[in-house]
Amino acid sequence: MSNNVIEMIVEIPKGSSNKYEYDVNTGKIALDRVLYGANFYPGEYGFIQNTLDWDGDPLDVISLVTYPTLPGVAVNIRILGSIKMIDNGEIDTKLFGVFHDDPRFDTYKNLEDVPQHLRDEIENFFLQYKALQKKSVRIDGWGDLNHALNEIKECKERFKKYEKQLATPNGKNEIIAEWKAKGLGQA
Ligand SMILES: [Mg+2]
Q1: Is 45 part of any known ligand binding site?
Q2: Which of 45, 113, 154, 173 could form an SS bridge with 108, CB 3.0 to 4.6 Å?
Q3: Based on the structure, what is the number of domains in the chain?
Q4: Residue 131, domain member (yes or no)
């Protein structure tokens, strides 16, 4: 990782209301669900490989994009910050960035370079997108680049620690149960 650029694997292209998820164990991209409301992803959404966040999944990323790509595509993302999201009481941070290989975003070097409305739109999407599922999402503000880089580091270390257990059939559920029992990853 150099110049804060890191590879994201796309799961959901911008504009989609289908929540696709990559299954690490089967290698398939599966439809998890169609969003319950008339909501659509306001950016390219995916994850960073070989990381593990508190929800038992790889670290999530949402990125500004000009032209949507496809599920499964690897994209270089220039990380600008993070969104401190709490999903149903679980810490579920999203990294935020832009396509590094799109010259339209060349002047976006940190969070302050991003038009406020684009940030508001993304924040509003996450606050709303589970409303019809009767699930609550909270956002404890945005983190700066340092916060985002620290998240990446922690999630990489956590992945290494649990890598073997994660690859077992019930590994993810066991790990989450262990964390819950210890109060880890809870907001
Ligand atoms: Mg997540």
Answers
A1: yes
A2: 113
A3: 1
A4: yes
